[in-house]
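About this split. The held-out portion is used to measure sequence recovery: a designer receives only the C-alpha coordinates and must propose an amino acid at every position. Recovery is the fraction of positions where the proposal matches the reference. Here is one held-out target exactly as it appears in the evaluation file.
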Protein backbone atom coordinates (compact mmCIF):
# COMPACT_ATOMS: atom_id res chain seq x y z
CA UNK A 1 0.00 0.00 0.00
CA UNK A 2 1.22 3.48 -0.87
CA UNK A 3 0.40 6.66 1.04
CA UNK A 4 0.72 10.30 0.13
CA UNK A 5 0.13 13.43 2.24
CA UNK A 6 -1.62 16.50 0.89
CA UNK A 7 -1.31 19.44 3.33
CA UNK A 8 -4.43 21.51 2.70
CA UNK A 9 -5.85 24.87 3.67
CA UNK A 10 -4.52 27.63 5.93
CA UNK A 11 -3.81 25.16 8.76
CA UNK A 12 -2.02 22.76 6.39
CA UNK A 13 -4.13 19.86 7.57
CA UNK A 14 -2.85 16.57 6.21
CA UNK A 15 -5.20 14.72 3.88
CA UNK A 16 -3.84 11.24 3.21
CA UNK A 17 -4.42 9.21 0.07
CA UNK A 18 -3.82 5.51 0.65
CA UNK A 19 -3.73 3.38 -2.47
CA UNK A 20 -3.36 -0.23 -3.57
CA UNK A 21 -1.58 -1.50 -6.67
CA UNK A 22 -4.89 -1.75 -8.52
CA UNK A 23 -5.57 1.95 -7.91
CA UNK A 24 -8.17 1.47 -5.18
CA UNK A 25 -7.75 4.24 -2.64
CA UNK A 26 -9.00 5.63 0.65
CA UNK A 27 -9.09 9.32 1.47
CA UNK A 28 -8.48 10.34 5.09
CA UNK A 29 -9.54 13.81 6.27
CA UNK A 30 -10.19 15.84 3.09
CA UNK A 31 -10.09 19.15 4.92
CA UNK A 32 -9.88 21.77 2.18
CA UNK A 33 -8.94 22.42 -1.46
CA UNK A 34 -10.94 19.64 -3.16
CA UNK A 35 -9.43 20.46 -6.55
CA UNK A 36 -5.97 19.67 -5.21
CA UNK A 37 -7.20 16.28 -4.02
CA UNK A 38 -8.95 15.55 -7.31
CA UNK A 39 -5.88 16.58 -9.30
CA UNK A 40 -3.66 14.17 -7.38
CA UNK A 41 -6.14 11.30 -7.70
CA UNK A 42 -6.46 11.92 -11.43
CA UNK A 43 -2.70 12.16 -11.97
CA UNK A 44 -2.17 8.77 -10.29
CA UNK A 45 -5.22 7.16 -11.94
CA UNK A 46 -6.69 6.17 -8.59
CA UNK A 47 -10.19 4.93 -7.77
CA UNK A 48 -11.42 6.30 -4.41
CA UNK A 49 -13.56 3.90 -2.39
CA UNK A 50 -14.31 5.80 0.84
CA UNK A 51 -13.61 8.83 3.00
CA UNK A 52 -12.43 8.16 6.55
CA UNK A 53 -12.59 10.96 9.11
CA UNK A 54 -10.38 10.91 12.20
CA UNK A 55 -12.62 13.62 13.68
CA UNK A 56 -14.91 16.44 12.59
CA UNK A 57 -13.10 19.70 13.22
CA UNK A 58 -13.62 22.13 10.35
CA UNK A 59 -10.08 21.84 9.00
CA UNK A 60 -10.56 18.10 8.49
CA UNK A 61 -13.99 18.13 6.81
CA UNK A 62 -14.07 21.16 4.50
CA UNK A 63 -13.82 19.17 1.26
CA UNK A 64 -15.89 16.16 2.35
CA UNK A 65 -19.00 16.89 0.28
CA UNK A 66 -17.11 17.91 -2.86
CA UNK A 67 -15.04 14.72 -2.81
CA UNK A 68 -17.96 12.48 -1.85
CA UNK A 69 -20.06 13.85 -4.71
CA UNK A 70 -17.22 13.72 -7.24
CA UNK A 71 -16.58 10.01 -6.70
CA UNK A 72 -19.88 8.77 -5.28
CA UNK A 73 -18.25 7.33 -2.18
CA UNK A 74 -19.25 6.92 1.46
CA UNK A 75 -18.09 8.90 4.50
CA UNK A 76 -17.21 7.23 7.80
CA UNK A 77 -17.13 9.03 11.16
CA UNK A 78 -17.42 8.20 14.86
CA UNK A 79 -20.86 8.47 16.42
CA UNK A 80 -19.67 11.03 18.98
CA UNK A 81 -19.15 13.56 16.19
CA UNK A 82 -21.71 12.69 13.55
CA UNK A 83 -23.66 15.88 14.33
CA UNK A 84 -20.51 18.01 14.09
CA UNK A 85 -20.45 17.67 10.31
CA UNK A 86 -23.46 19.96 9.88
CA UNK A 87 -23.00 22.17 12.94
CA UNK A 88 -20.46 25.05 12.64
CA UNK A 89 -20.65 25.65 16.39
CA UNK A 90 -19.51 22.09 17.09
CA UNK A 91 -16.93 21.71 14.30
CA UNK A 92 -15.25 24.98 15.22
CA UNK A 93 -15.75 26.91 12.00
CA UNK A 94 -18.14 29.36 13.66
CA UNK A 95 -15.42 30.30 16.15
CA UNK A 96 -12.34 30.23 13.94
CA UNK A 97 -13.74 31.24 10.54
CA UNK A 98 -15.90 34.34 11.01
CA UNK A 99 -18.20 34.68 8.04
CA UNK A 100 -17.43 31.21 6.72
CA UNK A 101 -19.33 28.32 8.22
CA UNK A 102 -18.23 24.81 7.31
CA UNK A 103 -21.02 22.28 6.91
CA UNK A 104 -21.09 18.78 5.46
CA UNK A 105 -23.94 16.41 4.83
CA UNK A 106 -24.68 13.48 7.10
CA UNK A 107 -22.10 10.68 7.16
CA UNK A 108 -23.01 7.47 5.35
CA UNK A 109 -21.59 5.21 8.05
CA UNK A 110 -21.35 5.91 11.76
CA UNK A 111 -18.71 4.04 13.75
CA UNK A 112 -19.97 3.21 17.23
CA UNK A 113 -17.07 1.30 18.76
CA UNK A 114 -13.58 -0.04 18.17
CA UNK A 115 -13.58 -2.70 15.50
CA UNK A 116 -11.85 -4.31 12.56
CA UNK A 117 -13.04 -3.00 9.21
CA UNK A 118 -12.62 -3.95 5.57
CA UNK A 119 -13.38 -1.60 2.69
CA UNK A 120 -12.69 -2.69 -0.88
CA UNK A 121 -9.52 -4.62 -0.03
CA UNK A 122 -8.32 -2.30 2.75
CA UNK A 123 -8.25 -3.95 6.16
CA UNK A 124 -7.68 -1.87 9.28
CA UNK A 125 -8.48 -1.42 12.96
CA UNK A 126 -10.42 1.51 14.38
CA UNK A 127 -9.09 2.78 17.71
CA UNK A 128 -11.03 5.26 19.82
CA UNK A 129 -8.49 7.95 20.75
CA UNK A 130 -10.51 10.79 22.33
CA UNK A 131 -9.01 13.78 24.09
CA UNK A 132 -8.42 16.23 21.28
CA UNK A 133 -12.12 15.83 20.60
CA UNK A 134 -14.71 13.37 21.96
CA UNK A 135 -15.03 11.29 18.82
CA UNK A 136 -11.41 11.23 17.66
CA UNK A 137 -10.41 7.89 16.17
CA UNK A 138 -7.23 6.46 14.68
CA UNK A 139 -6.98 4.01 11.79
CA UNK A 140 -4.37 1.25 12.14
CA UNK A 141 -3.29 -0.67 9.06
CA UNK A 142 -1.60 -3.62 10.74
CA UNK A 143 -0.12 -5.34 7.69
CA UNK A 144 1.42 -2.11 6.43
CA UNK A 145 2.55 -0.90 9.86
CA UNK A 146 0.79 2.47 9.55
CA UNK A 147 -1.51 4.37 11.89
CA UNK A 148 -3.36 7.55 10.91
CA UNK A 149 -3.61 9.33 14.25
CA UNK A 150 -5.55 12.47 13.33
CA UNK A 151 -4.84 15.23 15.84
CA UNK A 152 -4.05 12.88 18.73
CA UNK A 153 -0.32 12.37 18.23
CA UNK A 154 2.15 14.49 16.26
CA UNK A 155 5.90 14.49 15.79
CA UNK A 156 7.22 15.79 19.14
CA UNK A 157 3.77 17.02 20.15
CA UNK A 158 0.17 16.07 20.91
CA UNK A 159 -3.20 17.52 19.96
CA UNK A 160 -4.54 20.62 21.64
CA UNK A 161 -7.18 20.02 24.28
CA UNK A 162 -8.48 23.54 24.92
CA UNK A 163 -11.30 23.26 22.39
CA UNK A 164 -14.87 22.23 23.32
CA UNK A 165 -14.91 18.56 24.27
CA UNK A 166 -11.14 18.39 24.70
CA UNK A 167 -9.59 16.64 27.69
CA UNK A 168 -5.85 16.61 28.32
CA UNK A 169 -5.74 13.61 30.65
CA UNK A 170 -8.01 11.64 28.34
CA UNK A 171 -5.77 12.40 25.37
CA UNK A 172 -2.66 11.21 27.20
CA UNK A 173 -4.47 8.03 28.19
CA UNK A 174 -5.57 7.46 24.59
CA UNK A 175 -2.03 7.89 23.29
CA UNK A 176 -0.47 5.61 25.89
CA UNK A 177 -3.09 2.86 25.84
CA UNK A 178 -3.97 2.80 22.14
CA UNK A 179 -0.99 4.15 20.18
CA UNK A 180 2.22 3.65 22.13
CA UNK A 181 1.40 -0.06 22.52
CA UNK A 182 1.85 -0.51 18.76
CA UNK A 183 5.18 -1.82 17.41
CA UNK A 184 7.85 0.86 17.68
CA UNK A 185 8.48 0.81 13.93
CA UNK A 186 4.84 1.73 13.24
CA UNK A 187 4.65 4.79 11.01
CA UNK A 188 2.45 7.56 12.41
CA UNK A 189 0.57 9.73 9.91
CA UNK A 190 -0.59 12.77 11.92
CA UNK A 191 -3.19 15.38 11.11
CA UNK A 192 -0.55 18.10 10.88
CA UNK A 193 3.18 18.10 10.29
CA UNK A 194 5.59 15.35 9.21
CA UNK A 195 5.22 11.62 9.69
CA UNK A 196 6.96 9.99 12.62
CA UNK A 197 7.15 6.58 14.30
CA UNK A 198 5.83 5.20 17.55
CA UNK A 199 9.38 4.50 18.72
CA UNK A 200 10.52 8.05 18.02
CA UNK A 201 7.66 9.51 20.02
CA UNK A 202 8.22 7.11 22.90
CA UNK A 203 11.83 8.23 23.07
CA UNK A 204 11.64 11.96 22.48
CA UNK A 205 8.13 13.40 22.68
CA UNK A 206 8.32 15.89 25.60
CA UNK A 207 4.55 15.79 26.17
CA UNK A 208 4.56 12.07 26.93
CA UNK A 209 7.24 11.97 29.60
CA UNK A 210 6.12 11.26 33.12
CA UNK A 211 2.59 10.09 32.29
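Reference sequence for scoring:
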Amino acid sequence: MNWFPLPLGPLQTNCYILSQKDGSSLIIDPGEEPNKIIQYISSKKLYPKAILLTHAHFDHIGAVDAIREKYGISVYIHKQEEKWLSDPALNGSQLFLPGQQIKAKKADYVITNEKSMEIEGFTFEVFETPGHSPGSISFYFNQEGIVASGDALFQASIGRTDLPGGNHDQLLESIHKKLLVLPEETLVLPGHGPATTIGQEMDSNPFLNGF
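Annotator remark: The radius of gyration is 16 Å.
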